[in-house]
């Protein structure tokens, strides 16, 4: 189970030839002619926010930004790793990818040195949306109900399990229904193929579900339920209590106590040159007013609203931009350096494991890696974050 914290924010890794592109870092920010971002499916919060940022870059710098929709974390990161995308608008999957767990513990992946630019926490929250016609009022009522899971998306699935854990439920207590993508899962809820799906309250599919004949509710996660929150944070410690005041069926007049974490988190690989990341981050910071109202949740990208001291490091290029915005401290610097060291420990452990003649069968390979990972982190006096 997840015991570590979650992840944090933004980025970029280019699939275009950044090497030949000149950047300037004063008022005259220079961006390349084209950029590609990846995000969740069309209409989701992450996709809509990425489009809003892209429009700002087009309007201010003439940069054409293409946003590629992808149904799960693996599909979002693949173009980024292949340098065919400049940034990925991720969620908690950023942390799982860094740690090399779940789908990222396979031979094809391993620990990914992802680093962040900017992330958003706004008026929305993230939890299990439930079809209103099920009669479910509290999370415990989901026992025996159909809950959606997405193949290849450990973040979504682990988040769903964390919310279920709030009510003392596990995957065995519900009927798990697998879908190929996030969008397909929510279509399944509308089409009565599933009763509950994880997402942000402002995601487009949730609004479609709320307007459908089935309707949509968000069973609350009251902050005063300390035992429930303790169970939830054993599975997803990156969640924190927050009252949602925007989203499907939610308003400032009708808030719901739920849980949240930064999303979307724009991520890049550590190998991305600092000047490139700086240019994009700086553009997002100084032109915040141009896109903050472009999509629900975009307002949370403000430099002074960044989640501090999370479990994935901020890229040095983004650090420079945040320092210039007066939003960086010595304490954050020390914390960030420790996170970079953690990525180095994980990378070394993965390399050593690959040389140890590991089992070829997928499950045995993953089991062996998780043991090697735990040993390496313990030796470095770093928390595991996951039960072996």
From TrEMBL:
Pfam families: NMT1_3. Residues 1-19 form the signal peptide. It comes from the Bacteria. Keywords: Signal. Its main location: periplasm. InterPro entries: TRAP_TAXI (IPR011852). Gene3D superfamilies: Periplasmic binding protein-like II (3.40.190.10). It is found in: Periplasm. The keyword Signal applies. Belongs to the bacterial solute-binding protein SsuA/TauA family. PANTHER family: ALIPHATIC SULFONATES-BINDING PROTEIN-RELATED, TAURINE-BINDING PERIPLASMIC PROTEIN. NCBIfam families: TRAP_TAXI. This is TAXI family TRAP transporter solute-binding subunit.
